[in-house]
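pasting input
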Amino acid sequence: MSVATVRGVVVSEWTKVWSVPSTLWTLLLTVAVSVGFGRFVAGALSGPDVQGPADPLFAAFYSLTFGQLAIVVFGALVVGGEYSAGTIRASLSAVPRRGLFYTGKLLAATGIAVVVSVVTVFVTFFVTQSALGVNGVTLSDEGVPAAVAGACLYLTLITLFATGVAAMLRNPTLTLGILLPIFFLGAQGVGNVPGLKSFAQYLPDQAGSLIMHLAGPQDDPRWARDYGPWTGVGILALWAIAALVGGYLVMRRRDA
Amino acid sequence: MIEVENLSKRYGDKVAVDGLSFAVKPGQVTGFLGPNGAGKSTTMRMIMGLDRPGGGRATIGGRSYRDLREPLRRVGALLDAAGLHKRRSAYNHLLWLAQTNRIPKTRVREVLRLVGLEDAARQRAGGFSLGMAGRLGIAAALLGDPPVLLLDEPVNGLDPEGVLWIRTLLNDLAAEGRTVLVSSHLMSETALTAQHLIVIGRGRLIADTSVREFVRSAAPSHVRVRTPEPERLRDVLAAAGFPVKQASDGALEVYEAEADKVGELAAAHGVPVYESAVRTASLEEAFMRLTGEDVEYRGGGR
């Protein structure tokens, strides 16, 4: 696998993404929903009659739980879209080595996810914090760099998790039918429901939400997780790696 | 050169390809024939490394497809015209394909011109007719200027002009010394394009021969004779050692005989002959005869 060979496959994967409107839309929506809804939340939490949010970082990243749904669709389409559109045979005819094909896809998807995540997180952060005015925080405040970095990692990893699941199921519709309800319920706080918490807190989105200050005040035993913020990111990373490995095994073994 | 050795594939308990062996030589168009469901597409997918063989192997120039570096420069394939993203333009479809194998962009323009799609290059493939999609598929197959071509039912959906175009194109490509394998379930169309035939039925090899030889051996020609005294002529011909059959309209069909000989025998025995004609079996008849027992989905008939 020479560098030039891999580069060719990555470039072609990038072409596949920009040459189809649906994938471009998912990326645009990720930014638009996160920033727009974040501005709305921050607006509701500021103003003369309001005391301001208990945690300004909650206001910064709460909207990502909705914006993530769009980038998860992107992640599912990266591999899954080839099966629904029927291009998978052409792709594997052009790049018959499954490992090379999968590597090229993941490098392209990761690159795009990182860029979109960083843009989304930074723009959302600055927009929400300026809306909060005096109650807002700046990048140099304590705990903020970790939360911002964590949010970028979160969006990237959740995208790759969806990519891996779609590669295992070989069907983007089925993938989204499973993942979107789970992530949507996660946004509704399912990780904190007393009976479910011991299990639900280890779900990929829940594990990653702690570092973004979305899991509630950790000094309150009702919200407290059994792991720390970076361990949470690690748990999400393990989910993503497991899904990606599973996707690779399916692609290597099954007929196209 | 494509070589298939003892290739097998089953789906569940259904055998799709059963111990198939053949070789496709360069410099001629080889027709890959069989009724629908005979295993043609499955065989082609295994040659392309898309489906794993249950047994045996398929190689191109001595190497299995999955081991080829930049395979589009070695093998061009049209597997299904539907393998296009509806929202992607023809140009971009060829562009991403080219990028995987480091084929220059100028070649994309070249193949679009070659198949007559340069004006539709920016159109979305979803708006293409079956014929245009087929042409785009051919363009994709030719992208890497490969010495080996595999085309699965390329004339499907093409208008008469398109059929003629592809026939000429395939023969030109073969004349340049390329290996060309074209599958079809249409015997007559294949006969016009191909010089060599590989016929399969129910996943097994039925014939691997030239088109001419195939017709001759599968359904021999005969002399058709109309006479008012069929019984007497029949005895005369039978005595001379020729197999004779009587057709439903009363005419005699004389096998293994020249028309001259039949006429001479009739004259010698004073049997009047109203009509005598040599009939060569059509390709369709030859095909039906050979694959008759191997048709998987047969019409109900009456």
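fyi The longest helix of chain A spans residues 98-132.
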